[in-house]
Amino acid sequence: MSTISQMTPDQARRFMEAGKPDAYTLLDVRQDWEYEEDHLPGALHIPLPELPDRIQELDPEGTLLVYCASGGRSMAAAALLEGQGFEDINNLVGGMSAWEGHSAFGPMELGLVAYTGAESPAEVLLKAYAMEDALQIFYVERADMAETMERIQLFMELAGFEDKHKDTLYELYTRVVDEPMSRDEFEETALRNLAEEVEGGVPIGEFLDQFPGAFDDDQGVLQLASMVEAQALDYYLRCVRRSKVEETRKVLQILAREEKAHLKVLGKHMDRRE
Q: Residue 100 contacts by C-beta under 8 Å, 6 or more apart in sequence?
């Protein structure tokens, strides 16, 4: 059960007016150019792609109010922080767009897979495999829709990363069970379990259906990609924290490092405004 609180702009204003400046940390997770264009006074700026490496700059026992442009990246950041032990986290619904009075969407909580902490190593790997498959499909679809060669190459590169992750996950699976399924059986089981968990839909597709128009342009697509990569990273880090199998922990740590690298790639592309 998530402990992240959702704040509307009005609630956030009352919260900020009622508390002393040092009673909470206002965290802006947008890119540098977005922050330079406009930001809330006193905000600490840590772009989402940099957050995993700069998390030590934040007090895990303090109160956080996180925001971005529309509420999606900030929700991904909030979940990442929650997974690392932060408890008092608030997400600004609608982000800067809603704060400035523009029409905005509701809480953008993207769900790929749930992690309870009770999963066996094999179950962790099955869930991770299904998640990587969903990301790979998403990137291939975005490549098909891209209008520039740069974007096509970016999304096919990311799709290739997910393919390598799937290979790694299956290889690890064969080492943590006595009688492993074949690769085809493993994939079929992973995808069937995911379909049952989300009642038959691909979460990314459902998310896009829920927020039509929010991620249409290049920046929007890259922002959504950063959200899904942040959730993949969050999943691996949560598994690392709770896993009792050292071999599993090591591989999950490798996957987490690779997800951090993916986030940085996306951050660089988000900074290339045309």
A: 38
Contact yes or no for 28/67 (Cβ under 8 A): yes
Residue 259 structural domain? 121-270
Q: Are residues 60 and 138 in the same domain?
A: no
Q: Is 25 helix (H, G, I), strand (E, B) or coil?
A: strand
Q: What residue spans of the chain are helical by DSSP H?
A: 9-18, 32-37, 51-54, 72-83, 95-99, 121-145, 149-176, 183-197, 203-210, 218-242, 246-270
76 plus 131 within the same structural domain:
no
Catalytic residue among 66, 68, 125, 230: 68
pLDDT digits (tens, 9 = 90+) for 110-161: 777 777 777 888 888 898 898 889 889 989 988 998 888 988 998 898 899 8
- Catalytic (active site) residue 239: no
